[in-house]
Write a structure and sequence with these properties.
384 residues; alpha+beta; two-stranded antiparallel sheet; globular; Rad_response_metalloprotease
């Protein structure tokens, strides 16, 4: 005889909302949910276990009398207007926990191997002029205007910036799903990225489900958070007009790193046509959307005009990417180091070969179950 259990309707509703299910998904994934919530039918233990698994809910929490209050485990800088963003999704929380676990492992590895963390962590405050910090970041990364012609376009500039940020001691993870679960796609409307500060193991995560045009801005925005020495979950929106002082400061720094305002004022030919935006994008190796943001910062547009132009240009860029057939796919062994952080993956593999980390632990950290995948990844990363 099946064992049936009592579950508070509020807990069921909380789990569905936390998982981001709409009404249609809820009916498809949990056909008896309406009856469970109404109390006319109680779920069996197996049904409830499956429901917990499908909604990514810790099973024991479903036996509480009321939904728990889950907080983002790092400072939440996201805002909608001046209001804090509501309850975090399971996908967001699990992504942060996963990155914290990886950071914890790498911190111990760095300490054991005498790895010295970057000196710039916590070197600035929000009273520091953004133009000064932007100059420091460009110098650290070798991303001044003289270097830009080395990149064929802004997409390549993004890839090279990832490498250069890792070369100065920061773990960079760019992923559009939770871990390796392709069924749990991250929502860029919920968050664009976060920074986990640490003297030895600073980490940046960028939501890879966002457009690449937005990712390059988020990447530098999160790096600015590390300059402040503070962890943060971010909006990093190029159309934000308000928010916390820290978020606005990081936006200003990111924009100045990518497109120095003094240079743009000199380069701009006075009409923001698509051709002019593309020309400036080629000049600075950024997206046309970043160029639009900086033209607004230079006071060539009103706020209303900028918002309208940004929306129009974003639609054009997205349509162009769709025509080109661009997607987030590709060779696993090329994309996985970007998802994991090349620096992190190399450390895990090296530690495993040295005997300091078990293969079982390495598989867990790298999100693989097969030894052949581990060996192929090691070869791709040049670790022997």
């Amino acid at each position: 005889m099946a064992v049936r259990v009592d579950v508070a309707p509020a807990l069921l509703h909380w789990a569905v909302e936390r998982a981001g299910w709409d009404a249609q998904t809820a009916r498809r994934r949990a056909p008896k949910l309406d009856e469970w919530e109404a109390g006319t039918v109680r779920p069996t233990l197996k049904q409830l276990e499956k429901f917990a698994h499908d909604t990514h809910t810790p099973f024991g929490l479903l036996f509480l009398t009321e939904p728990p209050h889950e907080e983002v485990p790092i400072p939440d800088m996201r805002t909608i207007g001046n209001a804090a963003v509501p309850r975090p999704s399971a996908d967001l929380l699990d992504t942060i926990y996963l990155c914290q676990a990886r950071q914890e492992w790498y911190r111990a590895y760095a300490q054991d191997n005498g790895v010295v963390g970057p000196s710039f962590i916590g070197s600035a405050v929000t009273d520091t002029r953004p133009i000064l910090v932007a100059g420091e970041i460009r110098d650290e990364l070798g991303f001044d205007l003289a270097e830009r012609p080395k990149f064929s376009n802004w997409e390549e500039a993004l890839r090279r910036l990832i490498d250069r940020i890792e070369n100065i001691g920061v773990l960079v993870m760019i992923n559009g799903v939770v871990g390796a679960n392709t069924h749990r796609r991250l929502n860029p409307e919920e968050f664009r990225g976060f920074a986990l500060t640490d003297p030895r193991a600073p980490l940046i995560f960028v939501n890879g489900a966002d457009t690449k045009a937005a990712q390059i801005f988020t990447l530098i925005h999160e790096l600015a958070h590390l300059w402040l020495g503070k962890s943060a979950l971010s909006d990093a929106s190029m159309t934000a007009s308000d928010g916390t002082a820290e978020e606005l400061w990081c936006n200003q720094v990111a924009a100045e790193v990518l497109v120095p305002l003094a240079a743009l004022r000199s380069d701009y030919r006075g009409a923001a046509t698509v051709e002019e935006l593309k020309r400036l994008a080629r000049r600075y190796r950024v997206s046309t959307l970043v160029i639009l943001k900086r033209l607004f910062d230079a006071q060539f547009f009103t706020w209303e005009d900028y918002r309208a132009r940004y929306s129009e240009e974003r639609d054009r860029v997205m349509a162009e990417l769709a025509r080109r057939g661009e997607s987030g796919g590709g060779n696993y062994y090329h994309t996985q180091p970007i998802r994991l952080s090349r620096l992190f993956a190399q450390a895990v593999i090296a530690s495993t070969y040295q005997g300091s980390t078990t293969y079982r632990e390495a598989y867990r950290l790298l999100g693989t179950r097969q030894h052949a995948t581990f060996e192929n990844l090691a070869a791709e990363l040049g670790v022997t």
